[in-house]
Each structure stands twice: as structure tokens, then as C-alpha cells.
Amino acid sequence: MAERLAITWVFNTIALFVATWLLSGLSYGNDWWALLVAGLVFTLVNMFLKPVLAVLSIPFIIVTFGIFYFLINVLMLYLTDWLVSQFTIETFWWAALAAIIVSVVNGILHMFFGRPGAPEAPSEVTIARF
């Protein structure tokens, strides 16, 4: 669990950095530690609060064909903005763009490094021969 949390924290911190680098409507101030704190808070709200909200929102997610799930992602960014004073989002549209960028960057990182905590695929060596 701790390894998964640490890897997810690193991935989310990188994703938030890329989003703030690309978008002028997002900022973490002048302190690099604020980005680390924002990454940790974003990781924690995504690990613990987002699944609860997703389950409670299943009817809305189905009716909107998944668009409501995207709004939950935007809400997680706004929660991070609210909890970390140095991390700021100017408008809803900047948050929407940031949610897309964070999702894409996380997807790329997971593609190259795998999902934290996911079991590895068996290699040719570990397959039992009969």
C-alpha cells in the first residue's frame, strides 16, 4: 500500500507539474514543495474520496455517458485547490483542461512504468512446463 501510494504520488506530482507548465490558469506558486503537497493531496483525494463519489454517482455517469465522471475529476482538482493554498486554479475551464492533461500524463506514465500495485504479467521463465 505504501509503495502504491508513493508511486501514485510521484505520477500525480509529475502530471500536475506538466499541467501547470502548459496552462497559465494553474499555478503552484514559487515553492516546489507546494507542488509536492498538491500532488500528495491530489493522490489522497483520488484514492479515498473519488471511488466513493464515483459509486454514488453511477446513475449520473450512466445517463451522461461518462461525462459526469470527468466532472468528478475536475472536482478532485478543485478539492486540491481548496486544501493547498499555493495551488490555484483560475476558472472551471482551466480545471477542465488540467483534468484532461493530468489524465493523459498519468496514462502515459502508467503505459511506460505500469500501474502501481498491479500484479506483473508472468514472464516466459515463470510459466510452469509440464
| Strands in their spatial order, largest beta sheet | 1-2
- Oligomeric status: single chain
* Total DSSP E strands: 2
* Fraction in helix: over 70%
Overview of the structural elements:
This protein is 70% helix and 3% strand. It is mainly alpha-helical. The protein has one domain. The longest helix is centred in the middle third of the chain and has 25 residues, at 32-56.
Brief description of this entry?
By secondary structure, this protein is mainly alpha-helical. The protein has five helices and two strands; from the N terminus they run αβαααβα.
List keywords for this structure.
2 strands; globular; mainly alpha; about 130 residues; two-stranded antiparallel sheet; 5 helices
SSE layout and pairing:
Layout: H1 2-22, E1 26-27, H2 32-56, H3 58-63, H4 67-83, E2 88-89, H5 92-113
Antiparallel strand pairs: 1-2
Helix pairs in contact: 1-2, 1-5, 2-4, 4-5
